[in-house]
């Protein structure tokens, strides 16, 4: 099978440009007081009205607002005060102790839940007392007395319903009505109409004091269940935050004797202040380079490197991998992981907000504030929802009072099948049942039912709760998805492009072949071997057809040949010392294994995707691919390239003369083939993109089962972004998986960039999905999780719109003339309460799904 690099068209779609202007400043606020999507929209509107604000995004589920603003143009504290003054108590996350701020937020939310549970308990007691009055009837005259039920309704409005009514009225006064406004209007109207019926019995109205009691009870029950479900949805993020250790044990590693297992002062210590074995300090005050002692069972306080001792570390909270990882001097450890078996001393390399766990927390928090574009319609509707519902309620009243009861007079007879009225309640004496309802009372009931059945919460919670659960599941399994917009793009993917080196392969190259070609060269590099005069037993080596396997260096050839091989390795190692690439690492490692001294080199230069050069003993030496050699005027024979088919060839030249070539080979990741097969089963096209030669790419492609059409080889780093743009121009929705600096432009250009955390920081920062584990199969899991989460978003939005689209007309009496179905305010309130609960519960069902590929 012939693999030919695919040409990239000359005319390309526009590639994402590099922004020269300073990036916008991001400010995050904790916002409380939001009750529904209408509140969230009101907060966004207030934020956008502030000068200097570019965009604002408010998440109802986690009560967080993220503001993108011009650098230095916005005073965060002033903006928070503005929101607070407008009824939404806010606090910016700038400055201060972040841990204390998070603890204060958690405590505030716990108090809110406790307060809701107390209010719910009172409401349930009132509902039970109200129900007993109807069940016992004349057996308990006090419980069936109309004044007793008036007292229950009054208590319901004053105690559990008080905060709802006050907040609803305030919101209406501020021109930002919310769900509480609708509930308050419904409950107060029902209470007022019942009072009118009680005080003016000649009107023939019935009293329905039970309606506000049951309405408020159902609303509070729904709110409590919703809060608990939202708390469960946010549990993964709270668990991540809890991973961040509070303290660190600072030690002086220069002490003559450092007992790793000791927590006591040295025997000769006279003062902990002057000669401590260790001292505990807050973990966020540790500085890079300081030495820390970590005992078994303790959390690693910051990212660092083990300097003394051996242990195993539980990294499951970061990677999802349950098996402890062995650590010894030189190995890296991450903050938040647990030291399992031995005491170690480590050196801090990243502290504070730079640690891995802090970055994970920041990524998850950012993800939970970014909306999916599909939510835009719901947000637009939510901004006018409450006003619309109030208008529909008014129209319902007017229609039934002036027209409906006259067109269908039969609706005034008896009670509907779904009417949750409880019969007439009198002053203690049984009166004949009222067989005819007042048209005014019926119209009023229908208007109240419209007010309380509408649920803006379902619209507001549809997207953020699904994202909250999905991002939490991802964080638990080492998959960091940056937001709802990414989830939507994941759902649209049809093509996945993999970088080869370090992604599909391990990136740990090994030297397999040497081919010294010193003929016609007068270079000696101060060597005792004149490479220009090597015409002896090694002359056969200079022929193009001869390849020297690395195993031959061990003694199966003549000493002169072995020495020439070593000299070639010395030369190329000196040049590659100035590069940061898997090829350079492999060459330097082999040089160290053979104990070859490094030749002096300076003036290093790297041409990404081509090679490196340096001055070695005063002469410019180039090491790189065939294209790099051509640019330097060095001719590489075709037969020479063919002799290294399927391997990565590093050509070495100086002064226009080819000194030799070294062949390297990479190994495929163990899970690469399974990953590619699984992605294909999911209906995705898999493409391999590499800057390596076509022959080297062909070997890997054959192992993966890829065809020639699915391989893009010999693509320069800047050409990778053009290659992705070309696929996008063909209508493909592309994900790019990479780990290196060279992959960053392609990751940015892709619809979804997937970066391996073991890769470079640039790749991780550019990617929209970050895989914390060094497992390629996580690509499958992240796409599967993204698809499942986005499906939940669509299900939630469908339910939210369908519920309101169907519920409001039914509450308005649509079915009343034909079927006699009449929703009482209490029944409507119950439906409203459980509609938002159903949205959150549906999102939580994501946790029952198995995403393991």
Describe the protein's architecture and organization.
This protein has 853 residues and is α+β, with helices and mostly antiparallel strands. It is 46% helix and 16% strand. It has 28 helices and 27 strands. The strands form five sheets. Strands 14-27-26-25-15-23-24 form a seven-stranded mixed sheet, with helices on both faces. A seven-stranded antiparallel sheet has the order 17-16-22-21-20-19-18. A hairpin with a 4-residue loop joins strand 2 and strand 3 (64-69). 48% of the residues are buried.
Topology of this protein?
Elements: E1 25-31, H1 37-48, E2 53-59, E3 64-69, H2 76-85, E4 90-92, H3 98-136, H4 141-144, H5 146-158, H6 162-173, H7 179-199, H8 210-233, H9 235-243, E5 247-251, E6 278-282, E7 291-294, E8 303-308, E9 311-314, H10 316-319, E10 325-327, E11 332-333, E12 338-339, E13 344-350, H11 356-369, H12 376-407, H13 439-453, H14 456-476, E14 479-481, H15 484-492, E15 495-499, H16 500-504, E16 510-516, E17 548-549, H17 559-576, H18 582-593, E18 601-607, E19 611-616, E20 619-624, H19 626-631, H20 638-643, E21 648-654, E22 657-665, H21 672-681, E23 685-689, H22 694-704, E24 711-712, H23 717-729, E25 734-738, H24 744-749, E26 752-756, H25 761-766, E27 769-771, H26 778-811, H27 816-819, H28 825-844
Parallel strand pairs: 15-23, 15-25, 23-24, 25-26, 26-27
Antiparallel strand pairs: 1-3, 1-4, 2-3, 5-6, 5-7, 7-13, 8-11, 8-13, 9-10, 9-12, 14-27, 16-17, 16-22, 18-19, 19-20, 20-21, 21-22
Helix pairs in contact: 1-12, 3-5, 3-8, 5-7, 5-8, 6-7, 7-8, 7-13, 8-28, 9-11, 9-14, 11-14, 12-13, 13-26, 13-28, 14-26, 14-28, 15-26, 17-18, 26-28
């Amino acid at each position: 099978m012939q693999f030919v690099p695919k040409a990239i068209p000359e005319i390309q779609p526009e590639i994402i440009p590099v922004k020269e202007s300073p990036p916008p400043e991001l400010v995050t606020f904790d916002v409380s007081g939001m009750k529904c999507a209408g509140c969230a929209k009101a907060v966004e509107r207030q934020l956008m009205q502030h000068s200097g604000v570019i965009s604002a995004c408010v998440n109802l589920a986690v009560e967080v607002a993220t503001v993108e603003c011009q650098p230095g143009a916005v005073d965060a504290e002033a903006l928070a005060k503005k929101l607070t003054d407008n009824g939404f108590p806010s606090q910016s996350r700038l400055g201060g102790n972040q841990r204390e701020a998070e603890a204060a937020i958690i405590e505030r939310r716990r108090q809110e839940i406790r307060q809701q549970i107390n209010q719910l308990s009172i409401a349930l007691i009132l509902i039970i007392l109200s129900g007993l009055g109807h069940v016992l009837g004349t057996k308990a005259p006090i419980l069936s007395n109309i004044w007793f039920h008036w007292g229950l309704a009054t208590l319901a409005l004053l105690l559990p319903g008080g905060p709802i009514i006050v907040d609803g009225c305030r919101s209406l006064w501020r021109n930002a009505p919310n769900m509480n406004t609708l509930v308050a209007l419904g409950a107060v109207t029902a209470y007022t109409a019942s009072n009118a019926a009680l005080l003016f019995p000649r009107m023939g109205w019935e009293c329905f004091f039970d309606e506000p009691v049951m309405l408020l009870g159902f609303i509070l029950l729904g709110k409590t269940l919703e809060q608990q479900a939202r708390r469960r949805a946010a549990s993964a993020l709270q668990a991540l935050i809890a991973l961040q250790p509070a303290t660190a044990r600072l030690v002086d590693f220069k002490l003559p004797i450092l007992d790793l297992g000791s927590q006591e002062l040295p025997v000769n210590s006279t003062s902990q202040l002057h000669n401590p074995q260790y001292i505990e300090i807050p973990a966020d005050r540790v500085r890079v380079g300081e030495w820390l002692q970590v005992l078994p069972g303790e959390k690693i306080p910051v990212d660092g490197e083990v300097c003394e001792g051996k242990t195993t570390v539980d990294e499951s909270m970061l990677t999802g991998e349950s098996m402890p990882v062995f650590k010894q001097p030189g190995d890296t450890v991450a903050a938040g992981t647990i030291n399992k078996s031995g005491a170690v001393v480590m050196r801090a390399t990243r502290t504070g907000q730079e640690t891995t766990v802090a970055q994970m927390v920041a990524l998850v928090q950012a993800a939970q504030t970014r909306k999916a574009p599909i939510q835009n319609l719901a947000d637009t509707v939510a901004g006018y929802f409450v006003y619309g519902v109030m208008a529909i309620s008014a129209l319902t009243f007017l229609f039934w009072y002036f027209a409906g009861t006259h067109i269908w007079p039969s609706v005034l007879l008896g009670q509907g099948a779904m009417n949750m009225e409880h019969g007439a309640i009198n002053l203690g004496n049984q009166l004949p049942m009222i067989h005819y309802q007042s048209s005014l009372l019926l119209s009023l009931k229908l208007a109240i039912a419209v007010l309380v059945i509408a649920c803006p919460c379902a619209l507001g919670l549809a997207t953020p709760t699904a994202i909250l659960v999905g991002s939490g599941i991802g964080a638990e399994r080492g998959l960091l998805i940056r937001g709802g917009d990414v989830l939507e793009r994941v759902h649209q993917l049809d093509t996945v492009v993999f970088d080869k080196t370090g992604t599909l392969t391990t990136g740990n190259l090994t030297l397999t072949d040497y081919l010294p070609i010193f003929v016609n060269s007068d270079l000696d590099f101060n060597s005792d071997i004149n490479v220009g005069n090597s015409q002896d037993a090694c002359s056969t080596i200079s022929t193009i057809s001869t390849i020297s396997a690395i195993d031959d260096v061990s003694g199966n050839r003549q000493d002169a040949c072995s020495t020439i091989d070593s000299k070639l390795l010395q030369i190329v190692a000196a040049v590659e010392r100035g590069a940061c690439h898997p090829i350079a690492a492999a060459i330097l490692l082999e040089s160290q294994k053979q104990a070859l001294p490094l030749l002096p080199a300076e003036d290093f230069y790297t041409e990404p995707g081509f090679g490196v050069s340096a001055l070695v003993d005063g002469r410019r030496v180039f090491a790189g691919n065939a294209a790099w050699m051509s640019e330097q005027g060095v001719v590489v024979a075709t037969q020479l390239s063919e002799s290294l088919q399927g391997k990565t060839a590093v050509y070495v030249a100086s002064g226009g003369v080819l000194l030799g070539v070294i062949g390297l080979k990479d190994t495929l990741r163990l899970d690469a083939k399974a990953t590619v097969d699984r992605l294909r089963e999911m209906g995705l096209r898999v493409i391999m993109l590499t800057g390596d030669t076509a022959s080297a790419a062909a070997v890997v492609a054959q192992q993966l089962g890829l065809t020639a059409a699915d391989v893009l080889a010999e693509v320069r780093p800047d050409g990778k972004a053009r290659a992705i743009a070309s696929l996008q121009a063909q209508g493909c929705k592309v994900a790019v998986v990479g780990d290196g600096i060279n992959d960053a432009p392609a990751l940015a250009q892709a619809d979804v960039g997937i970066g391996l955390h073991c890769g470079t920081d640039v790749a991780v920062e550019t990617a929209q999905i970050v895989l914390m584990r060094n497992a390629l199969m996580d690509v499958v899991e992240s796409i599967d999780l993204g698809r499942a989460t986005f499906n939940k978003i669509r299900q939630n939005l469908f339910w939210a719109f369908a519920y309101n689209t169907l519920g409001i007309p039914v509450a308005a009496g649509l079915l009343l003339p034909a079927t006699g179905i009449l929703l009482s305010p209490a029944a409507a309130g119950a439906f409203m309460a459980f509609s938002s609960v159903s949205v959150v519960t549906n999102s939580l069902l994501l946790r029952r799904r198995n995403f393991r590929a």
